[in-house]
């Protein structure tokens, strides 16, 4: 399985920490010290989870001639901030591409949905049910967020990304998906309370951030070690680590536990905030031009709920 192309879309509206200083007194220094976040993107009134997914899709296809829209035979979408729970972002992408009678699947596993979506593609590929797939991840966090919430209201940003995957290598720069591991940890700690989004109640809240922090650091480190061991690789073989973009302190903690220098960790949270399951895919799009033959990239994620995973890529 190969990732042929990655493309991202970010809204143009930038919300800096000063917005929260004016709103509820949280200082720029207080926010950056605890999260690393300096700014985040916010969708404009005419944008939503589906429109951002469509723009990322358009960008992905403008960057390739080897993978045509009409060849897509599977679409898997991931989000926990849906614009419509019935006509999902995956359905919206299908209409955009105008491809009929193909599997269209939408999933929600919080911030780990990206890897669950890729693993679903892996299953379809293995069964011979698909050859060219599109994974789309998009989050409209600000539609559900309460800026007045001094605990977690300053964390969230909006954005989307698309991955084009195929069973065969289409170009030299394609990334070989060597291995994926995912798991649920819904029976651990405060998984049922730590991060919730109940639209009919009060949107995104995070009353147990310390529990999330602890388990995110533990599980992302552990699953990264497992996937490297499974593929007979050591930590020195890792060119880049792309963790879920939740908190800069989590990223640094995971790097430290693994024994990786900070320059090998890829982070976009400083300027984008927590963009949910789209964050790691956006980061992959950011470093795509820098990747060289022989590079090994590990994407590792953890989501509220709890769920986790890691994916090993090689150029």
From TrEMBL:
One of its GO terms (biological process) is fatty acid biosynthetic process. Pfam families: ACP_syn_III (PF08545), ACP_syn_III_C (PF08541). Residues 228-314 form the Beta-ketoacyl-[acyl-carrier-protein] synthase III C-terminal domain. Keywords: Acyltransferase, Transferase. The keyword Transferase applies. Gene3D superfamilies: 3.40.47.10. Residues 107-168 form the Beta-ketoacyl-[acyl-carrier-protein] synthase III N-terminal domain. The keyword Cytoplasm does not apply. Transmembrane segments: none annotated. One of its GO terms (molecular function) is 3-oxoacyl-[acyl-carrier-protein] synthase activity. Coiled coil: none annotated. InterPro entries: ACP_syn_III_C, ACP_syn_III_N, Thiolase-like. This is Ketoacyl-ACP synthase III.
């Amino acid at each position: 399985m190969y990732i042929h192309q990655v493309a991202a879309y970010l809204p143009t509206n930038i919300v800096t920490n000063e917005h929260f200083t004016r709103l509820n007194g949280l200082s720029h220094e207080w926010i950056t010290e605890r999260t690393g976040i300096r700014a985040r993107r916010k969708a404009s009134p005419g944008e939503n989870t589906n429109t951002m997914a469509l723009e990322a899709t358009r960008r992905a296809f403008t960057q390739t001639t080897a993978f045509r829209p009409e060849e897509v035979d599977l679409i898997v979408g991931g989000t926990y901030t849906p614009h419509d729970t019935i006509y999902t972002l995956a359905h919206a992408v299908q209409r955009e591409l105008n491809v009929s009678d193909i599997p269209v699947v939408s999933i929600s596993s919080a911030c780990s949905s990206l890897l669950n979506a890729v693993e679903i593609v892996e299953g379809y590929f293995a069964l011979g049910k698909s050859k060219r797939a599109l994974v789309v991840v998009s989050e409209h966090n600000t539609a559900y967020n309460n800026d007045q919430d001094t605990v977690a209201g300053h964390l969230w940003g909006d954005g989307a990304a698309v991955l084009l995957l195929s069973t065969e290598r289409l170009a030299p720069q394609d990334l070989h998906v060597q291995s994926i591991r995912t798991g649920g940890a819904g029976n651990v700690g405060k998984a049922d309370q730590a991060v919730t989004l109940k639209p009919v109640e009060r949107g995104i809240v995070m009353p147990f951030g310390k529990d999330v922090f602890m388990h995110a650091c533990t599980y992302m480190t552990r699953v990264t070690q497992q996937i490297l061991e499974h593929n007979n690789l050591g930590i020195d073989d890792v060119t880049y680590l792309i963790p879920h973009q939740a908190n800069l302190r989590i990223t640094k903690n995971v790097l430290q536990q693994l024994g990786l220098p900070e320059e090998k960790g890829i982070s976009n949270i400083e300027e984008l905030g927590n963009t949910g399951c789209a964050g790691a895919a956006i980061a992959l799009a950011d470093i795509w031009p820098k990747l060289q033959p022989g590079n090994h990239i590990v994407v590792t994620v953890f989501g509220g709920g709890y769920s986790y995973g890691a994916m090993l890529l090689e150029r």
